[in-house]
Every structure is written in C-alpha cells, then in structure tokens.
Amino acid sequence: MDISARRPTDRAGHPDQSAPIPIAVPDAAAPTGVPVVNATLHHIGFVMEISGSESQVTLDASLLTSLNSHSDSSIAMSGQVGSQIKIRVGSSWLLANIRTQKMYERDHKIITAQVDFLGEGDEDIVTGKICNFRRGVTRYPVPGSEVYAVSSSDLKQVYATDARANVEIGTVFPTQDIRGALYVDAMLGKHFALLGSTGTGKSTSAALILHKICDIAPEGHIVMIDPHGEYSAAFKNNGALFDVNNLAIPYWMMNFAEHYEIFVTSNGDDRQIDSDILAKCLLQARSKNRIAETIGKLTVDAPIPYLLSDLTTIIQNEMGRLNKATSSVPFMRLKNKIDELKADPRYNFMFSGMLVGDTMAEFVGKIFRMPSNGKPISIIDVSGVPSDITSTVVAVLSRLVFDYAIWSRNEPQRPILLVCEEAHRYIPSEQVSKDSAVRSILERIAKEGRKYGVSLGLITQRPSDLAEGVLSQCGTIISMRLNNDRDQAFVRAAMPEGARGFLDSIPALRNRECIICGEGVSIPIRVALDNLEEEKRPASDDPLFSQLWQETGGEAEILERVVRRWRAQGR
Ligand SMILES: Nc1ncnc2c1ncn2[C@@H]1O[C@H](COP(=O)(O)OP(=O)(O)OP(=O)(O)O)[C@@H](O)[C@H]1O
Ligand SMILES: [Mg+2]
C-alpha cells in the first residue's frame, strides 16, 4: 500500500510529502484584530483500524525520517514508540500514544503502529493547536483520518496542570522543558506505589516527591518507615528523626495480636494454649491501671499502660492455681520470654521500665507531627530494631496511624500519609509468607484507609512479591525501570488500559526516569525526574570501590570503634 495513494486527491499532486501541510484557518473565524497564524501541521500517516484498545495507524517512514532533524524535539521524535500522535475528529484533536511498530510494506516504507488513545482537546481557532485537553475519548476517528505529529506546544497544553494542588517533579519525555507534575490530593487520596529495580532511584525519587509535598504542606503529617536508615540524611532539616535511641515506643500500646507475635514463641497446639493464657493475664494486668476504672468494658486490645512486672506476677499466680487447665510449662514459657525482653538492652526502646507512664498522647503527637512545628515528616529508622521484632514494630506504628484516624473521626481531620519502604517485606504475597500483624494492618489500610484519611505510599523493588490486590489498591503507580519479567507483568496488570504503550517502555527506562499513571496525573506520563540536591538525598549512594580502595589510614581506630559499637549493639 502506498500511503500517497490514500491521501486526498487534492494533495495527491504534491510529490514532496515531507512538506508540512498548512491548515487553512478561515479568516472569518478569527476574532478581529488577532493575527491569523497558520500553524503548520506535519502529516505522518493515516488511521487504519479503530477497535477499542487495539487501534492501528499507518505511518510513512520516510516522512518520519525527514522530521528527525526538526528543531522541535517532540516533532523530531514523532512516530517513535512511547511518543504521541494527534488525529483530528471534527473540531477536536485526539491524542494517542504509540505502543508498537511493525514494518507493513518495505518498498514504500510504510509502518503500522498500535496506538492507545489518551484523551482529546479542542482546536485553538487562532493557532490551530490543541487546547482544553482532557482525559478520555468521546468521539473516535474513522479509518482513513489523517495522523499528525505532535508539537512541543501541543504537549505543553496537554501536560499543563490545572488549578489543583500539584508538585512538579521532572521533565516530560521527550521534551526538554515541559514540566511533569503530580496532583497531590488525587495521588494521596487513593494511595500510591513507587516501583523499580534496585539502584534505579526509588529512594531518591521518594525523597524528591516527599520534599516537594512537605514544601507545599508545612503542616502536614507524614510517617516514613525506613528499614535501612537512609532517609535521616535526606530530611535532617525538615523532618523529625527517630531511631531506637529516641523512639521510645511503649510496649503497652501493642494490641493483643502484636503482643502475641512477640511473647508467644511456641509451635503447634501449644500456641493456642499460650495465647489463651496471655490474653487472660494481659487483660488483668491492664485492668490494674486507674485509667481502666473509667472504662466500662475493658478489652485486651485497649492501649492502657500496665507494668511488665505485674504481667509476670499475674502469670505466676495463674500458674500456681490448682484448678488450671494445663501444666505449668506454658506459663513458664511466657514468663521467661517476658523476662528476657525486659533484660535485653536491644529491646530497651520498647520494653523499658521507663516506658510505663501514660505517654500515649505525647507519643502519638510526636510521631504524627501534631503539631508539626515546621517538620511535617517523621522518619522512623527501624534499622536498629532487632530483626525478630521489626515487623511487629512496623505493625504497631502502622496500626497507630489507622487507629488514630478511626478514633479521631469527630475531630478536625488530620489526614496522615504512611510511607513504607521495602513494602514487599511487610505485605508479602501468601506464597512468600504467612499471616502477620503488619500484613493485615497494611492490607486493611490499603483497602479502607482512604475513607478515614489515611494514605499509603508503598515503595518496593519486587512488586511481584506484594500481596495480591495491594497494587491494584494504589490509585497512582510510579514505575521506574523494572528488569524482571514477572514484576513487569504484575505492574501491567495493575495499570489502566490507556497506559499500556508506556508500560512497554518500562524495561527501557533510564535511571531516574519513570512512568506515572493513574489518579495523580491527568494522563500517563513518562518523566525524567529532577536532580535532587545532594543534601536532600537519602544516604544510599553506591560505594565507589575504585576510589575508596585507594584510601588507607586509621584502621586501628576504625576497628576499635566498630568493635565497641558491635559489642554494645548500638550506634
Ligand atoms: N533524582 C535524582 N537526583 C540525584 N541523584 C539520583 C536521583 N535519582 C537517583 N539518583 C542516584 O542514583 C543512585 C541510586 O538511587 P537510589 O538509592 O534512590 O536507588 P533505589 O532504587 O532506592 O535502590 P535500592 O533498591 O538499592 O534501594 C544514588 O546514588 C542516587 O544518588
Ligand atoms: Mg532504596
């Protein structure tokens, strides 16, 4: 098929197809006094087939080649996979994204391309460019409609942000100057996920986005769970930094399930026995507090301070009872575990006798930044938490966020954003690990958090290891390069149809480039993220072996300090 044969007859006489086709703007239509600008359109092909998600166009390869050196980078990129084309339908312009390309007819250099429609805009009567762009398509083109290259000024219109609160994070591909932005309310309202293989820049991008959000929301409430201790470096000026040395999270704030995860160590049938004893004794210990007297029906989950020594005494008393149902072994097991936690300095940040006072309001206020005192984000570095209880600590923190939201429903609303790095560790799929407190609370926040003003931000390098359905609860997906096929397939399943063309470029993204689709953007975009200043970056720089292996000196002191910290198990 020769593309020229399909061109309208009045143009068939022009042998030079690379010449731009001027669109005639009727003078009468232009407002008086406004100069008529004859915008040049670059015709590059025709619509072949329209069928829902599988629409096809043909492109003239020699026309595309002739545009290659065009000064407008968007026009120069025309026809490439991941770039956009426009099609006129009546008085509006349809914008579509090229997903695939295939040689159709070699001799005449005709390419067929599959496209996904992004949305439509009106034609500016004066300039002929796209204006008032909006997502979704109301009127489809018919086969044979002409396909045109999209210019940078078209894209500027398309990506222009409306009046909603937004943060600019980078430059839209393939342009050099059009800014890509995230709509903050839409993004946080329905959770977001930030995905990418290791080293592609997830942590830095998360820091970039959170910095921008903090800038526009100095009285915000953001809680970041940081398993590697990377983010303190990034938020030293505008964040409250917590680690095992200053977190002081009181053990009695745990609910029963969390107590159970830490205190019950037995296996098999014994677990149920231990659990029953713990529930009974814990309730008794809690009821000894004066606060409990003011509460009609005390439950074992209520965050009421109790003394660990009271709990062990109660367990001992129960063990001494003659009419108990079991042997003394389960009682001893529980008591020994509690004594062990009390005595081990590594657990001091949570199980210290100092933490018995009723500091709940103070603790919640400091972690959730209420008031924020100019530091709207709290970075909770859990890297120093003993690994056997890290997931329970994350569970407690996440549950506090959710419970706060539930119990503050009659109060002035203070929505909270909970950001979770290495999310696949805490909400793993069933194949990877069994039920845990952290998984159930994060799954619950993913499902219901929106209604209570809790937003979840999940960062992971292994989307395929995330629990079923969690990714699809994320309204906005920010995907950096993903090298693994399985991960790509998971992300594809969670992304909306129209973003498919972009998805295919996920394995080809450069570092710091990402694809964003969903609620946070008006149409899917590919963005090269801005450079983040060094002092705002997380401490995750790749070590420069070649350079560091040139350095020497001070080894004896280094070793001494390391050994001291190692033995003290503290930094
Ligand atoms: N926007 C950016 N501005 C400046 N540097 C960046 C940016 N994005 C990434 N980098 C650099 O790229 C490197 C890797 O980034 P980062 O640690 O964020 O990757 P990651 O995806 O979180 O890796 P991992 O999976 O190992 O945690 C870092 O050295 C970082 O400084
Ligand atoms: Mg990281």
Describe the structure.
- The protein has 19 helices and 20 strands.
- The chain is of the alpha/beta class.
- Strands 11-10-20-19-18-12-17-16-13-15-14 form an 11-stranded mixed sheet.
- The longest helix is centred in the C-terminal third of the chain and has 21 residues, at 387-407.
- The radius of gyration is 30 Å and the shape is elongated.
- The site of adenosine-5'-triphosphate has 20 residues, from helix 6.
By DSSP (H or I, 4+ residues per run), the number of helices equals 19
Structural class: alpha/beta
Mean pLDDT: 86
Low-confidence stretches: 1-38
> Per DSSP, what share of the residues sits in E-state strands of 2 or more residues?
15-25%
Shape: elongated
User: In order across it, which strands form the biggest sheet?
Assistant: 11-10-20-19-18-12-17-16-13-15-14
- Main beta sheet strand tally, sense and closure: 11 strands, mixed
